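Worked example 4.2. Below are the chains of a multi-component assembly; read each line carefully before continuing.
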Amino acid sequence: MLNAIFITMGAMFISDFIMIIVFPVVFVVGGTISSPLIIVIARIIKQYVALNYHPVDKFYWFMFSTMLLAVVFLLLLLMVLQISLSQMDQYVRWIIASVILSTSLAVRLTKSSLTCLNIIYHEKLMV
Amino acid sequence: MKNPKLGITIIITGAFLFNLLFWQEQVAINCLVFDLFIVTSLFCLYPDAKNNRIVKYLLAAHLICIAAVIINNTMLSKLAMGMTLLLFFAFAEYSHRSAWFAGGSMVINFTLFVAGFSSLLRTSNLYRKRNLKLGKLIRFAVFPLFIVAVFFVIYNFANNIFSGIVADISNKVGQFFSSFFELISIERLLFLLAGMYLTGALLVRATGNKLEQSEAALSDNLLRIRENKRGINSSFLFDIVSSVMGRLAKGMMALKNENTVGLISLGLLNLLLVIVNTIDINYLWFNFTYHPGINLTTMIHEGTELLILSLVLAIIVLLFFFRGNLNFYQRNKWLKIGAYAWLLQNGILVVSVLIRDYYYIKLMGLAYKRIGVLVFLILTLTGLITVFIKITWRKTAYYLMRVNAWSVIILFVIGTTINWDVLIAKYNISHSDRITLDLPFLLTLSDRTLPVLDQHIDVLKKREYELNREAVSLGNCNGCIEKILRNWKDNYLQKQQQYSWLSWNYADAATIKYFDVNHNIIAGKK
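Applying the procedure described above to all two chains together yields the following C-alpha cells:
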C-alpha cells in the first residue's frame, strides 16, 4: 500500500489521466506480482534472527537486504517485460525512489515485531 | 576491529578516494594508489596480519597482478588483481589455510557489511540515538496519506485552478530537483556508496563467521574413524554405496567388499583406458599426418572436450574409493597399484590431449580456447599429482582442494604477466604462411593489438582478398580492412582522450605513442 501511495504521488508529475487509475492498478497488480517475494523475505528473516550481531545492527542489515531485494525484483520485472531503463528514463528514478522509500518505511513499521521475533529466537536457544 | 572510530574514518576516506580515482576512468595506475591506501589501512586495523606467512605471499602475488594491470592492462590481470586482493584481505582478517574458505569468508564480509558498519557506528559513539519515534510517525501517517492521495487525485482531476496550482508547484519541485541533480549527480552518489561498500566490506570483519571454526576442524591428514559395528553410517556417499551393494556395504566385511569392488572397477577402467591410450599413442603420437579430408574440429576440438571430462571423472572416481577407511585397509596394496596405474594412464591421456591441442594450434593458430586447454592440462596434471600424494600419504579431500586451489591461483597470477591478445595476434600473423588466418577473430582482439595489425597490413589485405573471393566480407564491404582498422584506431584514440592520468597504463601509452610517431597505413600516412 505504501508502494502504491508513493507510485501514485510519483505519477502525479506524469499526466492527469494516469493519475486516476494508477493507485488501484498499482495496489492490485503490484500486490499480486510481488507476492512471491514473501518466500525470499521469509528466508531473510530467518537469517536475521540467526545473525550474531546487536539487534539494531541486524535491523539495519534487514532493511538494506529488503530494499536491495525490492530494487533487484523491480529490475528483473522490467527485464522480463522487456522494458529497458533508457526507454522509461523519465519515470525510472521516481519508481526506484518510491520502491526504496516505501520498502524502508514498511520495514520500519515491522521493527517491533522483528525485535520480538529476535527475543523469542534467542530465548529458545537459551532454553 | 579494535578502533571503530579509525575504521569509520578509513571507510569514508576510502569511499571518497574510490570516487576520485575510478569515476569515469579505467582500472590502471589508479588501482595502485587505491591499493596503497587500502593495504596500509588493513595493516593499521589488523596489525597481527603482518606476521602471517600466507598474507605475505598473497601480498607479493597481488603486487605482481598490480604490475600486470599497469603494464599489460588485460582483463585477466584485472580479474586476478581483484581475486588476490580479496584473498589477501580474507587471510589477513581470518585464520584460514584454504583459499575456498577464505573466499567464503569474503562473501560473508560483503553480505554482512551493513550490520558490521552499523556495529562500528554504535560502538564508536559517533552516532547518538535520538528518540524520533519514527515508527509512530509512520503509523500515524499511513492512513491519512492514503486518504489525502485519493482525494488529491480527485480534486486535481475535478478542479482546473487546483490542477494549475499543483502543476505550478510540481514544475518548481521538478526544477529544484533537476538543478539539484545537476549539482550532485545521482550516478556519482551511487558510485560513492559503491566505493564505501567495497572499502567497508574489505575492511570490516564479520562477527560470528562459522567458516573459521569449520576449517579449524579439518585436517590435511586422514584419520582412521572406527565406524559403528552395526554399520550405521549416515553420509551421503555411504547411502549411494549401500543402495547399490545392499548388505555387502554393512557389517564386519564392508571394507573388504568395498576393496573388491574398487579392485574390479579400477581393473576394468585401466583395461578400457589401455585401449584408448594405445590407439592415441599409435595414431596421434607417432603416425599423425594432416590431410584436408580430416575434420579437425571433430577430431581435436570435441575430442579434447570429452577427454578433459574423462580426466575430471577419473579424479572423482579415485576420490570416491580413497575417501575413508579403505586407505587404512591392510590388504589394499593391489587397489593402490590399480589407482597408480590409472593415474599414470590419465597422465598419458593428458599428453594425448596436449598433442591434439598442439596440432590444432599448429594448423589453425592461437585462440583463447586453445590456450585455455593448455592451462587446464597443467591444472589436471597438478590434480593427478596431488591425488597420487593423497593416496600415498593418506591425505584428505580437504588437502586436495586446498593445494589445487593454490595451484589455480599461482597459474592465474603467472597468466597475468602475458598480454595474451598481442601474443595471439603476433603468433597468428607471423605463422600466416602455414595457418589459415582467422581475420574476423583478429578484429575482435583488444585495442592494444592495433599496432601489430598495422605493421602487418599487407598480410591482412591478402587474407581479406582471399575471403572476398570466397564471398565472405568484413564489415559488409570488400577490400575495406584499412578502413575498418582506421575507424577502430580513431574510436580508440577518441576514447583514450577522455581519460586522465589516472587511467595511465603502459599498454595504452605504447599504442598511443605508436600512432603518434609512426607513418603507417592506418596511422593516416602523416
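Take a moment to check your reading of the output against the notes. The two ends of chain A are 39 Å apart (CA to CA). The helical segments of chain A are 2-11, 16-33, 37-50, 55-80, 89-109, 111-126.
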